[in-house]
Amino acid sequence: MAIVKKTLAHLIVALINILPVINRFSYFRSLNYRQLVDKTSGFLRSKNAKGHFRPNIDALNWGEDYTEGSSYQNSFACYHDILGYIRLIGGKDVFAKRLENLCNQDPQFQVHGYPGDEDNGSMSSSYLLNSLGFYPVTPGTGQYLIGIPNFDKACLYLPNGKHITINCKGNVPQYQFVHHVHYNHQAYHKLYLTHEDHIQGCQLDFQLGLVPPHHHYSSSDLPYSLTT
């Protein structure tokens, strides 16, 4: 059935014939995930033909209304409107706690699921980008969210003759937090990099640390979100 996944993937709205501006249609269609947010639990849940949430949800149950995952994973799949989702479920503290709980769960593919499911290269490309310290979480925005490199140093040689050099200090297993990032030797505070900056070539210097750093981020430092 994968009802939740279908809603997230297609976001179809019956108002297409009456909205005068196609951009308005596209905007509201992309927010259709809101219809599945259960404000009591904060999870995305499927609904029955009468528009009521299906009962007895198990947020850790793999499959059924969700494709290749559970409600816990699929409920974070509002990548294009993550700030809107955070607001819907109760704010940043609630979101951070839920994300922490997700990351502390054992992978669900240990017994059931699709071990080794390559998905036409998506698994390997996802691994490579993440291991370099950045990833295009919301395709089409031209943004790469900053993560943690797996290497002390890596270099990407671009077709235009430019190159991207990535250096990482404190690259040990117990250091799981980015303390500082420098872009071309300048302190960099945004949580994302842009494709335009990448293709011109650059040097990225990461400093990792043992405990989470305390930073104040402005709205311009945050990655793309359709609503705020």
Automatic annotation (TrEMBL):
Superkingdom: Bacteria
Top EC class for this record: hydrolase
Family matches, as InterPro entries: Glyco_hydro_92, PNGase
GO process annotations (BP): glycoprotein catabolic process
Keywords (A to Z) from UniProt: Glycosidase, Hydrolase
Listed EC numbers: 3.2.1.130
Domain Glycosyl hydrolase family: 29-105, 111-209
Gene Ontology cellular component list: cytosol
GO molecular function: glycoprotein endo-alpha-1,2-mannosidase activity; peptide-N4-(N-acetyl-beta-glucosaminyl)asparagine amidase activity
Matching PANTHER family: PEPTIDE N-GLYCANASE PNGASE -RELATED, PUTATIVE-RELATED
Protein name per Swiss-Prot or TrEMBL: Alpha-1,2-mannosidase
